[in-house]
């Protein structure tokens, strides 16, 4: 079992997601339950509906799911995905996340949904998981791996805690293979990171860990559509956010950051999709 270890990237992400500004923004603008890239049927669709469609699509790719399926969400945010799996399939879920503020909101929403017995919300660093080997049938993550300073360690931990034949199902905003780093500076700076992962990185890293790629449902257009949609909703919610105490500086930084994602996607430098990998059986 790995020993706990907090990298600078982990601490940066924890501080950001624990802030009042970020918590209010994600709860009020991003959908409040599923804070990740959505699958949009149209450009004006509500963010929450599109985001929930991503969860449903990932569940399809993670099939079969049943009450005896144990799922670990790596970077669970507000826990919407695990509540969905618990309600729809009866899965036993662990929602691991580093931000205490998000975890408290997750616990409250899980309790209100009557799912305390099926969804366990735990604080933790996904580069050093406090679980034994071969504990879970499914590992799940949405837009969380990018925040890790050591993504190879996250992949290794996910592979370690999966049972043989288990599936890792995840999404992540990525730079395309061979993307020129000098053109992605604004995106890196927004995340306080030196790089993003690429599809090639995940393929090479996970295959070296004994994982087999099952599918990659790549949809870069959804990344552009999602961040553009969030930016539009943010622009229309400025007064509401001000009234809830969100600072002008945060709002302006968020608008600029969302614009960098949109620009990078439109320029073909960024991609997004749903990866599925299977752990080899002995």
Provide keyphrases for this structure.
two-stranded antiparallel ribbon; 11 helices; 7-stranded mixed β-sheet; globular; 282 residues; disordered N terminus; alpha/beta; 45% helix
Describe what you observe in this structure.
The protein is an alpha/beta fold and 282 residues long. The chain has eleven helices and nine strands. The strands form two sheets. A seven-stranded mixed sheet has the order 3-2-1-4-5-9-7, sandwiched between helices. Strands 6-8 form a two-stranded antiparallel sheet. It is globular. The chain starts with 7 loop residues before the first helix and ends with a strand.
* DSSP strand tally: 9
Q: In DSSP terms, counting alpha (H) and pi (I) runs of 4 or more, how many helices? A: 11
Class based on secondary structure composition and strand pairing: alpha/beta
Note the main sheet.
Answer: 7 strands, mixed
Percentage of β-strand residues = 15-25%
Order of helices and strands: HHHEHEHEEHEEHHEHHHEE
Layout of strands and helices, then pairs:
Blueprint: H1 8-18, H2 20-28, H3 47-61, E1 70-74, H4 80-89, E2 92-97, H5 100-112, E3 119-123, E4 136-142, H6 151-161, E5 162-171, E6 174-175, H7 185-191, H8 199-208, E7 211-218, H9 220-236, H10 238-243, H11 248-266, E8 270-271, E9 273-279
Parallel strand pairs: 1-2, 1-4, 2-3, 4-5
Antiparallel strand pairs: 5-9, 6-8, 7-9
Quick recap of the structure?
With 282 residues, the protein is an alpha/beta fold. It contains 11 helices and 9 strands.
């Amino acid at each position: 079992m790995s020993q706990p270890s907090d990298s600078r990237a982990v601490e940066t992400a924890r501080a950001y997601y624990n802030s009042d500004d970020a918590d209010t923004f994600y709860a009020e603008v991003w959908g409040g339950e599923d804070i990740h890239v959505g699958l949009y049927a149209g450009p004006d669709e509500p963010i929450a509906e599109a985001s929930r469609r991503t969860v449903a699509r990932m569940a399809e790719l993670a099939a079969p799911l049943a009450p005896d399926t144990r799922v670990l969400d790596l970077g669970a945010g507000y826990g919407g995905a695990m509540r969905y799996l618990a309600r729809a399939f009866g899965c036993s879920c662990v929602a691991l996340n580093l931000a205490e503020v998000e975890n408290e909101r997750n616990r409250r929403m899980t309790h209100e949904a009557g799912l305390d017995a099926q969804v366990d919300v735990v604080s933790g660093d996904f580069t050093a998981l406090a679980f034994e080997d071969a504990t879970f049938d499914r590992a799940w993550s949405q837009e969380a791996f990018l925040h890790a300073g050591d993504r190879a360690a996250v992949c290794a931990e996910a592979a370690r805690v999966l049972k043989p034949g288990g599936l890792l199902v995840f999404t992540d905003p990525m730079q395309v293979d061979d993307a020129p780093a000098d053109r992605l500076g604004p995106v890196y700076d927004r995340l306080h990171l030196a790089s993003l992962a690429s599809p090639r990185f995940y393929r090479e890293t996970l295959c070296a860990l004994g994982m087999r790629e099952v599918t990659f449902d790549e949809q870069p257009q959804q990344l552009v559509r999602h961040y553009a949609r969030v930016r539009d909703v943010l622009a229309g919610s400025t007064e509401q956010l001000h009234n809830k105490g969100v600072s002008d500086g945060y709002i302006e930084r968020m608008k600029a950051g969302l614009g960098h994602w949109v620009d990078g996607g439109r320029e073909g430098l960024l991609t997004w999709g749903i990866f599925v990998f299977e752990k080899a059986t002995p």
